[in-house]
Amino acid sequence: MSEEFSLQEVIDSFKLSLSDSKEIFMDQYVEGWRGLVKLLNSLGSVFGFISKDVVNKLSILVSLRGGPEGAHYLSLQSMVQYELQSGLVEGGDHPASGTRGVSGCRTLLRLHRALRWLQLFLGGVSRDEGTPPTLCSLAYSQSLSQHHPWVIRSAAGLAFRMLPPRDPFLRMLNAGEPPQAVEVLGGAVPVLGEVYTITEELYSKHDLLNLP
Ligand code: 1Q0
């Protein structure tokens, strides 16, 4: 992946994360998120506290995947099965990574919730339902904000106001001129939606949606 953000690359990674049997592969899922971090970074330092948190979570997942138990982290489904069987979902000492007190499931749950925000936000932008700052905070209040304490909600609110207007924003996606970028965005929404729904069902089936 190049250093420059490209929306298409993000879509491709999330698309590739889906297997024929609707498993979600960890490596491609993480790759998709890495692309989103590049975009966050290109938006400026106000968004640094957000990208830092995402980078942190990605590095936990990468170290689990690269650790001695890495084979269990091939997909989200195998991760859930493994951590449930080994009593690791709530954290505890993690033999796989040497990291203590974390679990792959709770770490990924945070990203999963953020994916819902992204799906709502990008949907709104692609349908031109408002300016990026407005749509961003609307999507946030409909999703992630419920899981955040007041101090994070207010920091997020301040950051949203620094988002660029629609056209400069669309240009940052590196997906061509605005009309073309809108089309690419429109294509991104169902892909993110599918990844989100499969994860949501998986977590819900195993009662993992409220992991601390
Ligand atoms: C573009 C602006 C990005 C706005 C993102 C919305 C989320 C804002 C809230 C972020 C708070 C981050 C600080 C840390 C929070 C953690 O406490 C929390 C819980 O973790 P833990 O370990 O404490 O239990 N972490 C999270 O909830 C994860 C939050 C991840 C946010 C991921 C945002 C990904 C953004 C991608 C940029 C895409 C922009 C697309 C633009 C295209 C539109 C034309």
Automatic annotation (TrEMBL):
Any one GO biological process: negative regulation of interleukin-1 beta production
Boundaries of every Glycolipid transfer protein domain copy: 26-174
Highest taxon of source: Eukaryota
InterPro entries noted in UniProt: GLTP_sf, Glycolipid_transfer_prot_dom
Pfam families registered for this protein in UniProt: GLTP
Protein name, per record: Glycolipid transfer protein domain-containing protein
Organism of derivation: Pagothenia borchgrevinki (Bald rockcod)
Family in the record: Belongs to the GLTP family.
